[in-house]
Amino acid sequence: MSQTNGPLHAVVAITSTTALLELSKVPSIVRSVRSIQEFMRTVPLTVVGSQAHIDEAEVLLDRHNLFASFTVCDPDDPRALAAAIETEIAQFQAILIHDASRPLTRSEQFTKIMDTFNEGADAVRPATVFTETLKIIGENSVVLETLDRNSVKRIATPEIVRSSAIDRKGKDQGWFLPLKKNARIEHIEGAPEALRINTKEDGLLMESFLHWRRTSG
């Protein structure tokens, strides 16, 4: 597939209520939208999620003077997401997707993603290897297997996908959007602070990390 550097449309996906939680008094969804708009000031941006999540996100973004369009869909369903943003897929050469529950993603991640994409990849996202010991536990808490940590990766966002590499009726391959079989996939090194907030407790840990980063800098 040929290289493009053309127009880009950004999507911020609300995949959990944790995207609406505050981190040092700023909602995660607000931080996520800001991170994209500060990196690419003129990029059009759509927030996707359930109706309830969208209703709350509209209020939060308006309160912080941030502009976006909104689309109701299930962002965890690649086909549903592709159908919901089919107009954007048709009009733009690439779609950038960021999980709103990853509020501390830095601009360096966006830069690395774009650099790899502009080298000719069709789909790019960050990934980090596990540092923990991973074991498969069977019945009676018996360890069945110890996995090779290098073979398992933590996947993060942002993801960028070339529109011509999207298969709207394709199978779920673990990406936000279904990809064609011949899509050229690349992973860049992920950043440790770009963790996903899955619970309120995660949010408290992230607040501690944010405070440490500010005071140690």
Topology of helices and strands:
Elements: E1 8-13, E2 22-23, E3 26-27, H1 28-39, E4 45-49, H2 51-63, E5 69-72, H3 78-84, H4 86-91, E6 94-99, H5 107-118, E7 123-129, E8 134-137, E9 143-147, E10 153-155, E11 159-162, E12 185-189, H6 200-216
InterPro entries: IspD/TarI (IPR034683), IspD/TarI_cytidylyltransf_bact (IPR050088), Nucleotide-diphossugar_trans (IPR029044)
Keywords: Nucleotidyltransferase, Transferase
GO molecular function, one term: 2-C-methyl-D-erythritol 4-phosphate cytidylyltransferase activity
Written overview of the protein:
By secondary structure, this protein is of the alpha/beta class. The protein has one domain: Spore Coat Polysaccharide Biosynthesis Protein SpsA, Chain A, CATH 3.90.550. Helices cover 31% and strands 24% of the residues. The strands form three sheets. Strands 1, 4, 5, 6, 7, 10, 11 and 12 form an eight-stranded mixed β-sheet that branches. The chain has a two-stranded antiparallel ribbon with strand order 2-3. Strands 8-9 form a two-stranded antiparallel ribbon. A hairpin with a 5-residue loop joins β8 and β9. The N and C termini lie far apart (43 Å). Mean pLDDT is 87; it is low at 1-5.
By CATH, the architecture is named Alpha-Beta Complex
What is the average of the pLDDT values?
87
Give the count of helical stretches: 6
Number of domains: 1
Number of strands: 12
- Name the beta content range: 15-25%
Radius of gyration: 18 Å
Strand-pairing-aware structural class: alpha/beta
What kind of sheet is the major sheet?
Answer: 8 strands, mixed
Q: Could you tell me how far the N terminus lies from the C terminus, measured between alpha carbons in angstroms?
A: 43 Å
Helical residue percent?
25-40%
Name of the CATH class: Alpha Beta
Under CATH, the topology can be stated as: Spore Coat Polysaccharide Biosynthesis Protein SpsA, Chain A
Query: How does the overall form come out from the CA principal axes?
Result: globular
Spans of at least 5 consecutive residues whose pLDDT stays below 50 are 1-5
In the CATH hierarchy, what is the superfamily? Spore Coat Polysaccharide Biosynthesis Protein SpsA, Chain A
Helix/strand order: EEEHEHEHHEHEEEEEEH
Instruction: Work out the oligomeric state of the chains in this entry.
Output: single chain
Pfam families: IspD (PF01128)
Keywords: Nucleotidyltransferase, Transferase
GO molecular function, one term: 2-C-methyl-D-erythritol 4-phosphate cytidylyltransferase activity
